[in-house]
């Protein structure tokens, strides 16, 4: 009897307890769920607020945000690579129609004959190579301008403090700006902020005919451009951009190795029909004191 009792106790000890069976069942269930999730047969419920938005929802969200941070409704924004020599990019719909009109109306009462910089003295002087009229707005002079300047800094990755004030330009029929460099070849003009590293040219109006921004030294076959047949004779002399209200052209006067880029030579073709309004932001290597 003693031996039989001892044998029964050994057998009972080998039997699995209820807790062990429950844990084994949970483990098996977890493995099955993980397999179903991996195969995509089963999915966990997602909060509707965290669900991915459709493209239309994303565009609407972006438009609302940018309307709050600017003036008016901007169209769809996208970047076009124009050239690598010089480095040039077009930011489509960079400004809204209302922002363009605001800058024009702000500048109109103060327009004067445009000048160029004298490389010997650093002072402005009259020149036949530039026949437009223009004026400078103070950097950060009001909320709208500060918003635009912040946008420029965000797109160029260069701080607002490195930029000169916005220059507003107006070209009437026949007016132009002969090809030139935006960088300086004298020591006087680089005392404040160092060399100009880049230029952002914003088009504030459409132009019926002419008025293109042309890069005659660009290493691009201009005849291959899809808009080549729409260009004026001046525009066909190099890589050209037709003015379009709200678009912005960013080009670099210096290469990534900090040397001056002669392929950034550019000019404003004569306006043949209509009016051309634009705004220029020159950006320096270092902080520009205003």
From TrEMBL:
Give a Gene Ontology cellular component term annotated to this protein: endoplasmic reticulum membrane
| Gene3D superfamilies associated with the record | q2cbj1_9rhob like domain
Q: Which UniProt keywords apply?
A: Dioxygenase, Glycoprotein, Iron, Membrane, Metal-binding, Oxidoreductase, Signal-anchor, Transmembrane, Transmembrane helix
Q: How does it sit in the membrane?
A: Single-pass type II membrane protein
Q: Which domain of life is it from?
A: Eukaryota
Tell me the ranges covered by the Fe2OG dioxygenase domain, including all copies.
Answer: 162-285
Compartment(s) where it occurs, according to its Swiss-Prot or TrEMBL record:
Endoplasmic reticulum membrane
- One Pfam family it belongs to: 2OG-FeII_Oxy_3
Q: Which PROSITE patterns match?
A: FE2OG_OXY
Extent of the signal sequence? none
* Catalysis performed (reactions): L-prolyl-[collagen] + 2-oxoglutarate + O2 = trans-4-hydroxy-L-prolyl-[collagen] + succinate + CO2
Q: Which family does it belong to?
A: Belongs to the P4HA family.
- What PANTHER family would the database entry show? PROLYL 4-HYDROXYLASE 10-RELATED, PROLYL 4-HYDROXYLASE ALPHA SUBUNIT
Q: What is this protein called?
A: procollagen-proline 4-dioxygenase
Source species, please?
Phoenix dactylifera (Date palm)
The upper taxonomy is: Eukaryota, Viridiplantae, Streptophyta, Embryophyta, Tracheophyta
């Amino acid at each position: 009897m003693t031996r039989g009792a001892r044998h029964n106790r050994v057998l009972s000890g080998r039997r699995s307890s209820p807790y062990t069976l429950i844990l084994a069942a949970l483990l098996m269930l977890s493995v099955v769920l993980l397999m179903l999730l991996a195969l995509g047969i089963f999915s966990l419920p997602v909060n509707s607020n965290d669900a991915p938005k459709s493209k239309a929802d994303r565009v609407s969200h972006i438009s609302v945000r940018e309307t709050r941070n600017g003036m008016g409704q901007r169209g769809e924004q996208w970047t076009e690579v124009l050239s690598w020599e010089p480095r040039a990019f077009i930011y489509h719909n960079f400004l809204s129609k209302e922002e363009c009109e605001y800058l024009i109306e702000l500048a109109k009462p103060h327009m004067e004959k445009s000048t160029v910089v004298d490389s010997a003295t650093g002072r402005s002087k009259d020149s036949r190579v530039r026949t437009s009229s223009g004026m400078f707005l103070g950097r950060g002079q009001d909320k709208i301008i500060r918003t635009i300047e912040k946008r420029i800094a965000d797109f160029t990755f260069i701080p607002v403090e490195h930029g000169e004030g916005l220059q507003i330009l107006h070209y009437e029929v026949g007016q132009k700006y002969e090809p030139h460099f935006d960088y300086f070849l004298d020591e006087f003009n680089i005392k404040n902020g160092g060399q100009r590293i880049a230029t952002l040219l914003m088009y504030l109006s459409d132009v019926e005919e002419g008025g293109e921004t042309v890069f005659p030294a660009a290493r691009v076959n201009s005849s291959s451009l899809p808009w080549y047949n729409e260009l004026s004779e001046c525009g066909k002399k190099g890589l050209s951009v037709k003015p379009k209200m709200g678009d912005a052209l960013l080009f670099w006067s210096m290469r990534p190795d900090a040397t001056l880029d002669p392929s950034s030579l550019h000019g404003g073709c004569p306006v043949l029909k209509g009016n051309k309004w634009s705004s220029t932001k020159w950006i320096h290597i270092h902080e520009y004191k205003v």
